[in-house]
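Q: What would this chain look like folded?
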Amino acid sequence: MDGTNTDADPAALAARVDTTRTCPRCGTVFDMPDRGRGRRPVWCSGACRRLASAERVAARNAGSAVTVVEVPRSHRPDSDARLAIPSMGTLARLFLSSPVHCRQLLDTLIYRYTHDTLHTELRADMEDFAVSIARQHALDQEPEYRAARGDVQRLRRHLQADADRAEERRREVATLRAESLAQTTLIAELRAELAHPTIPMLETSDGGTRDAPWGGDPGVRMSRQQRRAAARAAHKNE
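A: My prediction, written as structure tokens:
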């Protein structure tokens, strides 16, 4: 101890009575807790304290600070959030897909039309709607219309089947083109070999070749003197 009195230091006294502090890592200003036992906090949270410790360890071991990667957390739905309102087109498709709802709507419109409770501008639309329904009902009763509609459905199925077969043929053609390219490459290699033919090796009386010693490995090339010696030896053996 050097005998200095730190209690008389103005900076130390100001630090003790200060009620806020700035986090040295993230720069967040946080309130100091009430006086208690232990050291006063330096970091704004435990996360900053742990990350700062990891950075110091990395800088000490590897000579560079650690890179902190923020991991996205899974989204938790808000219980107070309102659901998105679907569009009118979606509601119309859902409504028209239910025969019960369509029938209820038709009965309601007929009742309001009969009792003159519909608005004036809706009357013309209602009449057109009723005419279209009557026309569709009349068409459904016609055998020719039902037959034509069945023909259209069968034609659609045939067209879809043709499209599927065309896609299959396209894949087959691609496979054949790849095989043809491989065969063309092989033919080109064979033609290149035929353009530069190699001289066939002549066999000797002992079953070897002129380029191999007495039945030796023909892959081993012989010098001119070795071939002459082999020829003389073969001539003596005859």
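Residues 143-195 form the longest helix (53 residues).
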